[in-house]
UniProtKB/TrEMBL annotation, chain A:
One of its GO terms (cellular component) is plasma membrane. One of its GO terms (biological process) is cysteine transport. It is found in: Cell membrane. Residues 348-588 form the ABC transporter domain. GO terms for molecular function: ABC-type transporter activity; ATP binding; ATP hydrolysis activity; ATPase-coupled lipid transmembrane transporter activity. The chain crosses the membrane at residues 21-47, 59-77, 142-159, 165-185, 243-270, 282-299. It comes from Kushneria avicenniae. This is ATP-binding cassette, subfamily C, CydD. InterPro entries: AAA+_ATPase, ABC1_TM_dom, ABC1_TM_sf, ABC_transporter-like_ATP-bd, ABC_transporter-like_CS, ABC_transptr_CydD, P-loop_NTPase, Type_1_exporter. Coiled coil: none annotated.
From TrEMBL, chain B:
It comes from Kushneria avicenniae. PROSITE patterns: ABC_TM1F, ABC_TRANSPORTER_1, ABC_TRANSPORTER_2. Its main location: membrane. SUPFAM superfamilies: ABC transporter transmembrane region, P-loop containing nucleoside triphosphate hydrolases. One of its GO terms (cellular component) is plasma membrane. This is ATP-binding cassette, subfamily C, CydC. One of its GO terms (molecular function) is ATP hydrolysis activity. Residues 343-576 form the ABC transporter domain.
Amino acid sequence: MASNETPRQWLKRTAGRGARWTRLSVIAGTLSTLVLLVQAWCIATIAQRMVIDGADFSSLTLPLMLLPPAFIVRGLLIRGRTICSARGGIEIRQSVRRELLERIAVLGPFWARRQHSATLSNRVWDQVDALQGFYADYRPQMLLCGIIPLIILVAVAPLSWAAALILIATGPLIPMNMAMVGIGAKKRQEDQFQEMGRMSRHFLDTLQGLSTLKLFGISKHQAQEVHTASESFRRRTMRVLRLAFLSSTVLEFFASVSIALLALYLGFVYLGQFHFGMYDHGINLFIGLFILILAPEFYQPLRDLGVHYHAKAEAEAAAEDLMPILNRRVFERDTDQPAWQPEASIALTLEGLSARYAGRASPALDNVTFELHANEMLAVIGPSGAGKSTLLNVLMGFMHPEAGGVSIKEGTRPPRALTDIRPDDWQRQIAWVGQSTVIVSGTLADNLRLANDAASDDALLDALEQAALKHWFDALPDGLDTRLGEGGRAVSGGQARRIALARAFLREARLVLLDEPTASLDQASERLVMDALARLSSGRTVVLLTHRMELLALADRVLMMDQGRVRALDTLDALRAPQGPLARPAATDIPERRDV
Amino acid sequence: MFKKLLPYLRLMKPWAWLLALGIALQLLALASSIGLMALSGWFLSASALAGLSVATAQTFNYLLPSAGVRFFALSRTGTRYAERLVTHDATFRLLSRLRRHVYERLEPLSPAQLQRHGESELMTRLTADIDALDGLYLRVLAPSIVALLGIVVCGVVIGVFAPAIGVFAACALLTSGLLGPWLAWRAGRIHSDAWQQDNTRLRARLLERLNGLSELMIYNRWQGEVDKLIKGEHARDTHEYRLACQWGSSQLLSQTLLGLTLTGVLGMAGWAVIQHGMDATLVALMGLAVMGGFEAIALLPQAWQHLGRIQRAAARLDDIRSNVAETRFPDAETQQTPEGARLCLDRLSVHLEGNIAALSSVSLNIEEGEHLLILGPSGSGKTTLFNSLIRFVSPSDGTMTLGGAPLNRLSERDLRAQFAVAQQETHLFTTSYRDNLTMGRDVSDTNIMAVLDALALGDWLEHQPDGLSGFPDERGSSLSGGQLRRFGIARALLRQAPIVLMDEPTEGLDEATEQQVWEAIQKWCCNRTLIAITHRLTQLEQFDRIAMLDEGHLVEHDTPTRLLADPGSRLSTLCRRIDPELAGLMRTP
């Protein structure tokens, strides 16, 4: 997996995943050219028998009988080709999409959040779909461009070397001419693609900004603007197209001229004006017509390829977006560790922990050292950017520290480094309540069992009660079978947060991680969530990120962080003692800044 | 079935001649192509026949046919080039009009509702739909007409020599060209619709799951989600695969019919030669003409496929219009003009989709020149209040008046002129920064620079190589989130309107910048009404009045001093809940 791979190389490498379908598609295309030879034979034979031999109608029986099956077989082959091509494209897409989705898990949620979920889903969904045209149409066609002309040459050459020469002379010239005549025809096609893209982006831009335009009272006037901009794009695009079409015209020209040349050459041979280019058997009408019928097919693959050019440009653009995700190097943890299953509450020791985001100069965590006791609730506070979320991500195993480490101690067993525990085993010991809660489409029971597959219905009810959802639950029409989310019952922010808490109760995890669990809740919900939190924290080791005073009061100790470093770690009372870092000033004025 | 396409067909009227020219050129190109093959076939047959004896070989007039062959070779090339230029030019002209047309139809819709309809995804799909609609001429109309005429040309070329064979060829070609694609189009609709539905659902699901990635990973469910998504994708792709199968079958049908047509024509020609003494050299001409005619038919399947896509696009455009209610503005007779800028809200209630009450009976008067701060947790209805003022949402109950005139009696022009708004999201247009700030009005660069400086954007501007004339890059990412927000504030402050609405203007800004931005807003809004929304407890005393919203109810409103002095007020409770020292710690020392 070379890091300096080009999109084109990536596309080629990835093509291997659907290679057998592409191969079948190319075979079908090749066979259908062979059937074309039969068709040409039939037509040319009929003409020869009628015109020259003056034969009886019965002599036409064989070619006439052969024609319909030839067309049917060709139709079948075309059908096969269409199906195989589509199949190949679909398989490659599915495989790339699966790899992307699995890759996202390796890169971790923190990385994903920084990509913007909308951008990321666009890549995983739309950009992968954009590969279809390339693999289904362009690639097989490109391969056929090397095969079909060759078959036709092989068929023509033994009949007349002059005819073959005409084809050879114009054939290979075509790609060369395409490049030469429109110096950089490819560049021009790219320009065309870009210009068209700009054109539709401008319109999208206007539509997306519609409310802004309205607010500034110019949305009506903008209709004219849309038209004017479109018109100026048209003029620009047409300038590009005038040149871009030249390259396909060159192709067209060679195809037409070589057919004309062939016809004239053959005609003059018949009339006895030309005496070269044939073998001892000479050229009869059959041979002439046979060659003439095949001639357009010699150029057809290249003409078809031009139709699919945009698919290639689209796929290359998509590849450019996808490659950074697929080829990004990450630390991959050894998965051969022995299984780990703690039997008692766990304590954590963080030793000289430093972590850094790619491309950032200053570390997000800088030499963090502290101990988290078993069954302790530790609150972490600090301004944004202090490293609180990073700390959480390291603890969850989503981020790998660049120095230092975390070791876990449970009961009387010797401490074990976090890196020596399989991620699955570790994550099974974590319950998590964050600022937003995933409600998956499904029943309430499905949503709760997310945290624990094996939980009985009684356990679910118990968890609901613990999470202060009993009241809400009793009003549900279908109880645990009530459908939530997409197409089901809407869940408010406070309810979702308590569902997350219920999951945490069900989880039977040793470590509970809480990220602002009461953020943006109304007062009533906040109260309920806090009571539930107090219940949840007993008998578990808890790390809580917050800046709420009430929540701090629940904590055994408070860790103050700033710029990735530990500033203080003590009980709330000690921190608030007269000389402590959280000491009250003499007179409390209205604070400058707080959140509602 | 095709009624929805009528308005789009009508749009083509002004360029009827251009479109006709494009079709004529396409037809010429096709005729040249048929001519080239048919004439070459005849020329070969005739010269081969003539070449049988020396005498006929010498008298054979080869000048005319050989000139014809060369002519067709050149005209095929020339007309195809011209045809491409003309049809593309016509398409782009149509596109300009089409965009304007669609824009004019969308413009009256309420943006807030449009956004709820699916936000940018809807817009993206819309652009794709318009791109599909612009193919109506280039991909559907022109090829269809050309194919039909091409079949006629083919029939005529043959029919000149043998009318019966000509008629047979034309009819048979027509059948083979239409039957297969039509069947595929009919049968394909079910799968296309199902595909579209699956696709939308899966896309939404993916986005939802990506948002909850941490939780899903912690609960070991990501792999399960991946499997489910891939399974959904397989189901979606099955429809795609079925479409490909249908498509292949329709090609098979077309080929079979072509084969039968060709056999029929050649058989009839052979029969005619033997039984009726038709010139034998015409056999090859007829066969090759049929094959050339099929080149036109080969265009039809694609046209049918596009037709389906275009019909769905047209239907979706209609759908948006019928689903999203318009905000109606009064006509000239019933409209009123405001006197002054006093805002009165009387028992204002707003219900959003699903009948959720976003605002419940809010009554509030805002005097001209007053600076009002609206506080409340997220979801308390602050933004909805703004949206009702600018008539992006319609109240379900209660009245709003501005300068004595009911808000819904103001013409759109008058209403817009009253408000300068900075929304939470700032949309940056792909035009110069200057145009993005002036929004179509004349504002001097000095004024622009003054606002930017006041909002701490002066530094940023200095780093732009082209200054105000520079363009944001194509994805609009040349400004950071915080800068973009301030850019939106600058845009609103530059607008000379009596009432300024600011939605969370300092969200995502650091302490020092936040302070500076508030100062700039206050300074630029003196003598103007300022209504600001925030959920941060800052700058309280810089405002004349504070209104607290909670779950759509106006809980309290008074001067900050009085609210803070009352220990029972919501504001005081809030200020106590977040400990001052803790708040102090939040600040970077």
